[in-house]
């Protein structure tokens, strides 16, 4: 590194979930590698057990829930970049649609995201659509400054790994059968009922094997799907450290979204890029910006009904060359706005309500800490487990 490069290098506290699976770990590693490659010193901070990172010059989050809350908590007066990969309130609506308590979900969303919206000095989103939903949310809390003072940049999912573009890694199907992949979490937006309906119809029309990697871990319908597929040619691998061998046995990825949610319009689909990087065809619900863009370029089949999904799966044929996607979602290219900001990070005008929010959050954390301390005492434990009787003692 040159002397000029050394003098401009920053100590960056990167807050995320490096030990998680799926998107959360991939987002953290994408940001970490890019920031380090730009010459900065990265201090990883696990959002599940955040440390102050006292020597950092700036704080950057990578991921949405825990990383957002932890990054705001440790930032202090340092410049803070908050990553919101997905609209948090569209995600919250999906939780409610799965049976989550609306009041509790609203309280949790406000607790995590309102302080971040009021405090962060720059933001990244997962799509252009979610950039504009974020601008609206910033306006509602009184942050009327423009993009020069408060940057908001889309940083989409990065192209994963390094398979040569256009060269698939799957093993050809034997005997003309169809091998379908389900990958990632059965989460709040994943329509396991529609997927099951489509798979059953395809199985009735052709020899089919379904491979499932990922699955449990979020409030979705994984267990119900497992029960419905009992006795059918479906192999459940759960979460594996290296899903590449499972991908390699498949021809096509299937992923369908629930129709009663806003999340598909503001979110993205990591599994779609992962499948294309492995040389698979993709059949996915239209709606997510990533899916619609790739469908427009002839890279995936975007469908709007179960019937369209069945037809697309049975169409067969090779996957298209993925060179265009590899360039469009090149990891260094898509993260450029963050690296530009790190050349001269600065504080942005905070929302007028930021002081009040900060005061309220400190009071809430103090109350929670005090309550936790009380619950750990022997007196509390004895009180919980002793069968008190009226008039006893």
User: What fraction of the residues are assigned to beta strands by DSSP?
Assistant: 15-25%
Strand order of the largest sheet: 2-1-3-4-5-6
DSSP summary: helix tally: 18
- Give the helices and strands as they follow along the chain: HEHEEHEHHEHEEHEHEHEHHEHEHHHHHH
* Shape designation: globular
Mean pLDDT: 89
The description of the largest β-sheet is:
6 strands, parallel
Helix/sheet category: alpha/beta
Give the beta-strand count.
12
Write up what this structure looks like.
The chain has 393 residues and is an alpha/beta fold. The protein has helices at 3-8, 23-37, 65-75, 88-97, 102-119, 128-140, 192-205, 222-228, 244-248, 263-266, 270-277, 289-296, 306-314, 323-328, 331-334, 336-343, 354-375, 378-385, and strands spanning 11-16, 41-46, 58-61, 80-84, 122-125, 152-154, 178-185, 208-215, 234-238, 252-255, 281-285, 301-303. The strands form two sheets. Strands 2-1-3-4-5-6 form a six-stranded parallel sheet, sandwiched between helices. The chain is built from 18 helices and twelve strands. The chain is globular, with a radius of gyration of 23 Å. The model is unreliable at 1-7, 163-172 and 388-393 (pLDDT under 50). Helix 3 packs across helix 5, helix 4 runs antiparallel to helix 5 (102-119) and helix 7 (192-205) crosses helix 13 (306-314). Helix 2 (23-37) links the parallel strand 1 (11-16) and strand 2.
